[in-house]
Amino acid sequence: MLLFSIITAAVAPGLALLTYFYLKDRYDSEPLHMVVKVFLLGFLVVLPVMILQRGLTLWLGDHPLISSVGISAGVEEFFKWFVLYHIIYNHTEFDEPYDGILYSVAISLGFATVENIMYAFAGHASFGYMLMRALLPVSGHAMFGVMMGYYLGRAKFSQGRKTRYFIIVSLVFPMFWHGIYDLILNTMTHYWVWFAVPLMAGLWYTGMGKVRRANNRSPFRFVKREEEVNL
């Protein structure tokens, strides 16, 4: 019973957020099996990320800036971006800008869910600690995913130099903000909450704006409006 409670507490935030973003797709919902597959890809990304992070830490040391921006945020966001770009970006189901957000959030929350399970089994399964992880780290991964996916969506439906620009931004922006978040946690022992919470609030505010703009760029919005008028 205890084992079930721990797993539930670790998995629930990621599934809840994934459901929320799945329902935010206003015009052309993605196949559920595709979203679940990408979510599970986030599970698989954890192992190579951990191996590379361990090797880089032994090589470069644990300086807060290098550890936060390069080893933690850099490696994690790169692996998620790499998988999305090579598996999802050219997939036929990626047919509207919001799809980039949904699939990026899915792989990010899959990754965050495994992290949550690992922390829970490491002895951090108290209600307060798991609630904090749901509100900050898990939520943060979702917001970094929104950022990555929004710009992948812009790249997918742009042409020429704009495509390359948005592809680069889709990696750099989430890597930068993830690094800032980790740097706050790694350098501010007592007052980190006063910086992390406003940062997360700002990311949610801008993230919801990106969700709205991505939906507004959907090529299916006119089709749905015509269907509603015909009804």
Automatic annotation (TrEMBL):
One of its GO terms (biological process) is proteolysis. It is found in: Cell membrane. InterPro entries: Peptidase_PrsW_arch/bac, PrsW. The chain crosses the membrane at residues 6-23, 35-53, 65-88, 100-122, 134-153, 165-185, 191-208. It comes from the Bacteria. The keyword Nuclease does not apply. The keyword Hydrolase applies. It is an enzyme of class 3 (hydrolase). Its EC number is 3.4.-.-. Keywords: Cell membrane, Hydrolase, Membrane, Protease, Transmembrane, Transmembrane helix. It is a multi-pass membrane protein. GO terms for molecular function: peptidase activity. PANTHER family: PROTEASE PRSW. Belongs to the protease PrsW family. NCBIfam families: intramemb_PrsW (NF033739). Involved in the degradation of specific anti-sigma factors. This is Protease PrsW. It comes from Paenibacillus lacisoli. The gene is prsW.
